[in-house]
Hints:
- By secondary structure, this protein is mostly helical.
- It has a single domain, classed as RNA polymerase subunit, RPB6/omega (Eukaryotic RPB6 RNA polymerase subunit).
- 47% of the residues lie in helices and 10% in strands.
- The chain contains 4 helices and 2 strands.
- It has a two-stranded antiparallel sheet with strand order 1-2.
- A hairpin with a 5-residue loop joins β1 (69-73) and β2 (79-83).
Amino acid sequence: MYKSEESYLDKIKIGxxxxxxxxxxxxxxxRALQLTMGAPxxxxxxxxNTSDPLEIAEKELRLKILPITIRRRxxxxxxxxxxxxxxxxxxxxxxxx
Length: 97
């Protein structure tokens, strides 16, 4: 059931095969807002050393446990829904090579 990083690179058709800085900021900001409004953290309590929602959201993103899908659109109206995990795995494959 495990897929290689190369397959993630091949599956991302729209945009760069990594998370853009704008997508990263939007994800962290949205998740921090959820945490502020009372959503439970997705990481175990022993891994949380702070009460700052931004730091918790960044840690959740780094650990690749956020169940988020990015929708990238083209001016033609065409779009692709890309799971966040694909983008993070592809980014890791690119920069680890």
